Amino acid sequence: MRKNIVAGNWKMNKTFSEAEALMCDILDGLDKINEPLADVIICPPALYLEMGVDLVRETPVCIGAQNMSQFVSGAYTGEISAGMLQSMEVQYCILGHSERRKYFAENDEQLAKKVDSALANDIWPIFCCGEELAEREAGNHFNVVKGQIENALFHLTPEQFSNVVIAYEPIWAIGTGVTASPEQAEEMHEFIRGLVAGKYGKAVADETSILYGGSCNAKNANELFAKPDIDGGLIGGASLVADDFLTIIKSF
Ligand code: 13P
Fold this sequence. Notes:
Blueprint: E1 5-9, H1 16-31, E2 39-43, H2 49-56, E3 62-65, H3 82-87, E4 92-95, H4 98-103, H5 108-120, E5 124-129, H6 133-137, H7 141-153, H8 158-161, E6 165-168, H9 182-200, H10 202-206, E7 210-212, H11 221-225, E8 232-235, H12 242-249
Parallel strand pairs: 1-2, 1-8, 2-3, 3-4, 4-5, 5-6, 6-7
Bound molecules: 1,3-dihydroxyacetonephosphate.
1,3-dihydroxyacetonephosphate binds at residues 9, 97, 169, 174-175, 213-216, 234-238.
């Protein structure tokens, strides 16, 4: 279902006590917002998922993982399965983040399997796509994003697809302080929605939440979220500062 979403991707940051304090500060701040206009998802490092799930119980906040295995179970040292996430009451999982693609060689084929495994275990994927700067400069950004989405998601049935959140994260904007302009972001979001409409029909496309990520912060979230096809953000650096994250949540 299409909703406004603000998701915090904490990446590999914070000790346990820092993470607990940040989680509590965010929850305290959210308590003071009358009726938040966005659903909030917090994606801490895997070790802290249990702490997060315990703290958000009885609040509207959801907890998401940052990655999971495509395998069901067995001899895969160091991995965490979708079934394990489900058994810990984790509701979302970021899949296909560009950092996973770049540093851990995740590819579309693997990601399609991860998406399947997540959905089979009632974990909602936050599927990331986005182009490198050189790809944009070569005018190839629409094709790149189209390929990522088609290869990892378009084998899904419409019912399955309706449980997927898409996050457009241009790689050149991640952690750089260089945000895509609201116009650049909207242009891509509109393109993605059109792509989904072409495959699954307008009704499904209209119900898909498409988030923007890449140097989205307390100052620029307002302008980005005002665009018709931008349904919220996947926030990295600014999600590590409670006040900034709360300001972003209030930016609708
Ligand atoms: P920054 O907000 O730090 O640019 O990170 C975005 C991101 O990668 C979220 O997944």
